[in-house]
Amino acid sequence: MFTSTGILRYEKTNEYYRCVLDIDQELADYYRSLVPKAISLTRQRYGAHITVVRPYKEWPTNLEAWGRYEGEEVSFQYTNTIWFGRVYAWLDCYSERLEQIRSELGLPLDLDELLRYEGLYEPPMKPYKKRFHSTIGNAK
């Protein structure tokens, strides 16, 4: 696995909570460039990131912890295997710190929502409890 860092960002509206780790866009651009041109893959809608709290899908139960680590630089590991689903292409990402933040917010460390949507599942690498991901492109 490879190691990189990102910056933690929180967003709250009347409709949702969203927390992401903003990562280097060049990481997604590089891996997308490795995909053969015969596979139509466009850049992801948002800048490169790892979702920590999914908007409209998850609501933290411990709001005292919300926003506590805004701007924190967080280390993560990622694999260089590009996964392809029905719509998205992504890299698996892992971070004990992101797991801690989710737990502190009262959120589970269960199956990644993208993997559920794509119908794919592999357990996270040990010692990690959660498989995060970073989308590198989509076939929309």
Account of the 3D structure:
The chain is an alpha+beta fold. The chain has one domain. It has three helices and six strands, in the order ββαβββααβ. A hairpin with a 4-residue loop joins β1 and β2.
Walk across the major sheet and give the strand order. 3-2-1-4-5-6
> Count of helical segments?
3
Compressed to H and E, one letter per element, the order equals: EEHEEEHHE
The share of residues in extended strands comes to 25-35%
Overall residue-averaged pLDDT value: 90
- Contiguous low-pLDDT stretches (5 residues minimum) are none
Shape: globular
Helix fraction? 10-25%
List the helices and strands and how they pair.
Layout: E1 2-12, E2 17-22, H1 25-33, E3 49-53, E4 73-84, E5 88-94, H2 96-104, H3 113-118, E6 132-138
Antiparallel strand pairs: 1-2, 1-4, 2-3, 4-5, 5-6
Task: Summarize, please.
Helix content is 17%, strand content 34%. With 140 residues, the protein is an alpha+beta fold.
Which descriptors would you attach to this protein?
alpha+beta, 140 residues
